[in-house]
Amino acid sequence: MRETSARLLALLGLLQSRPDWSGTELAQRLDVTGRTVRNDIVRLRALGYPVDTVRGRSGSYRLGVGGKLPPLLLDDAEAVAVAIGLQAATGITGVEESSARALGKLEQVLPHRLRRQVTALREATTTGPVNTDSNVEDPAVDPAVLTELAAAIRDHQGLRCDYQDQRLELEPYRLVAWQRRWYLVGRDRSSGDWAPYRVDWLTLRTPGGRPFTPADFPGDLTEFVVREVARTGWAIHARLVIEASADEVISRINPAVGTVEPLPDGRSVLVTGGDSLEVVAVWIGMLGLDFTVEEPAELVQHLSVLAQRYARAART
Prior knowledge:
InterPro entries: CBASS_pafABC_assoc_protein, HTH_11, PafC-like, Tscrpt_reg_HTH_DeoR_CS, WCX_dom, WH-like_DNA-bd_sf, WH_DNA-bd_sf, WYL_dom. Residues 7-59 form the Helix-turn-helix type domain. It holds the Pfam family WYL. Residues 145-202 form the WYL domain. One of its GO terms (molecular function) is DNA-binding transcription factor activity. By secondary structure, this protein is of the alpha+beta class. It folds into 4 domains: 2-63, Arc Repressor Mutant, subunit A (Orthogonal Bundle), CATH 1.10.10; 76-124, no CATH class; 143-224, Roll (SH3 type barrels); 234-315, Alpha-Beta Plaits. Helices cover 44% and strands 21% of the residues. The chain contains 11 helices and 11 strands. The protein has helices at residues 2-17, 23-30, 34-46, 76-89, 96-109, 112-124, 143-155, 221-232, 246-252, 277-287, 297-315, and strands at residues 51-54, 60-63, 159-163, 166-178, 181-188, 194-198, 202-204, 236-242, 258-262, 268-274, 291-295. It has a 5-stranded antiparallel beta sheet. A 4-stranded antiparallel beta sheet has the order 9-10-8-11, sandwiched between helices. The longest helix is centred in the last third of the chain and has 19 residues, at 297-315. The chain is elongated, with a radius of gyration of 27 Å. It starts with a helix and ends with a helix.
């Protein structure tokens, strides 16, 4: 019986490793006869694992979709890699609890030698703070909301939602994870305008919106998200005139910081933002260029406070 159980697990592992296997290939890999393979397939089906038979000249077997999650068979390197990934995910807002539970379950069933490897790696590693670019905590996003949004994108199902004091009906197209924020790229049903919507600012309403026929996105999705988030996706938005050309500014900034527009007189405009005045001030200071703040007024006041603080520090 133990030999049969081991062979069934080996067979299940092979079926998980690639989409299709011929009976001959499975027999060769398991070192059994074709009849034994057929009998083992019947046993797997009896245990609730759907194994589909693909008709054809030679025929093949494929692990189908069923109501039961089959045991996940990983080799040593895969098991350690999954454990490391789950450990890292315990610091991500919104999925930290689920990641910690999954890591606990995985470590519980790891063989002793692998558990020692994972434990040694964890104990030998120090993780720096996840949020090093902001004095504002990362927003929490409910994984169930992300799942619902992904399903709406897949099924071309409209969404009814509240977003920053607006009630909208959106056509959802893509989820984008960027700068430790989640954005839903969608089109406003009433105006036809495209925009990235911060998921942590979005409240879904029931029932949802109407089904829609997808339209082609007009342009480059990544460039659009970077540009529009700099304009509308932050708690603080800033517009600055930089005493340098657009090419010079672009060469000095990370694309995630904002967008740059040239001016006729050779200067440029930087549109940027962040979740606090402190973050925006840090990014501006890293430019190493003279600038004038056009908006917001609160940023001008904050920079004035910083200027006085730095002046006092320089006199000591």
